[in-house]
Amino acid sequence: MAKLRIATFNINGIRSRLAALLQWLEREAPDVVCLQELKAVDSAFPVDALREAGYGAVWQGQSAWNGVAILAKGDAPLERRRSLPGFEDDTHSRYIEAAVGGVLIVCLYLPNGNPQPGPKFDYKLAWFDHLIAHAAQLYQSGHPVVIAGDFNVVPTDEDIYNPRSWLKDALLQPESRERYRKLLAQGWTDALRTHFGEQRVYTFWDYFRRHWDTNSGLRIDHLLLSADLAPRLRDAGVDRWVRGEPHASDHAPTWIDLEMGADRRRKSG
Predict the structure, then answer these.
(1) Is 80 contained in some domain?
(2) What residues correspond to the site Important for catalytic activity (predicted)?
């Protein structure tokens, strides 16, 4: 059986953290990578350096903010779309989807939504609603799909070191959590929670109040699996060592291993 490792990583600036990205790619060698917060225009995306590292890429950049990309070992992904249906006029680069090895990969950077209440939180909820509508179509298609990225949602109080100091944050609001539950209710499998069960696992540690040193983290980077892929989940984890490097992103790469093999046959259509 062939293993397919899919990772998601909010890199928080690909130009300033390119060396760290290349170090991680060399050491961990994921097959597919979803990147968020490129914070670079399309022309500044380091496609040549990534190609030298063995990865093809599709990306959608934006100056100073946002930006998403999908990397694939050995060949460029086949891009399918770069905006949510019905939300094409969104000026933020937050969404891209592409096919890699017979799997549809969705990479997203869901809006943060702070401060709330206000227009930024309203935008977050509207974006989420468009994602839910599109995800329903993807799930019902029967194709193997992975939705990965920085969702900017802490699903439950078990996904944060201590919710009390974050009660007013958009990541923990009932409206944000309700939409995440609505997304999962379509049938998607939250891969990390499924793998780790009740064990606490974090993917983000902010730069304030020594949160990294005290492991005061949040789980906001998620990988959701369609019905076809959920039974193939074999392992999952967070590459915490990347967060501990100098000048690191406040996120750590988060990954899953899927068992893919010749026995994986689907009905046509």
Answers:
(1) yes
(2) 221
145: phi then psi, degrees, rounded to nearest 5: -135, 140
Inside any domain, residue 265 = no
For 179-232, what is each residue's pLDDT tens digit? 999 999 999 999 999 999 999 999 999 999 899 999 999 999 999 999 999 999
Any binding-site annotation on 90? no
For CA atoms 183, 256, 58, 94, give the dihedral sign.
positive
Residue 267 lies in a domain: no
Distance between start and end Cα atoms, the chain: 25
Structural domain containing residue 122: 2-260
The 3-state DSSP class for residue 44 equals helix
Residue 117 CA to chain centroid, in angstroms? 25
Count the Cβ atoms, other than its own, within 10 Å of residue 238. 22
**269 in a domain, yes or no?**
no
Known binding residue 150? Answer is yes
- Residue 235: its H or E element: strand 233-238
Active-site positions read 109, 150, 251
- The letter for the amino acid at 129 is D
Helices (H), ranges, the chain: 18-28, 47-52, 119-140, 174-184, 191-196, 240-243
Count how many domains the chain has: 1
Contact in structure between 257 and 3 (CB atoms under 8 Å)? yes
Q: For 26-45, what is each residue's pLDDT tens digit?
A: 999 999 999 999 999 999 99
Given a contact cutoff of 8 angstroms between Cβ atoms, the answer to whether 27 and 21 are in contact is no
CATH code of the domain containing 191: 3.60.10.10
Is 195 labelled as part of a ligand binding site?
Answer: no
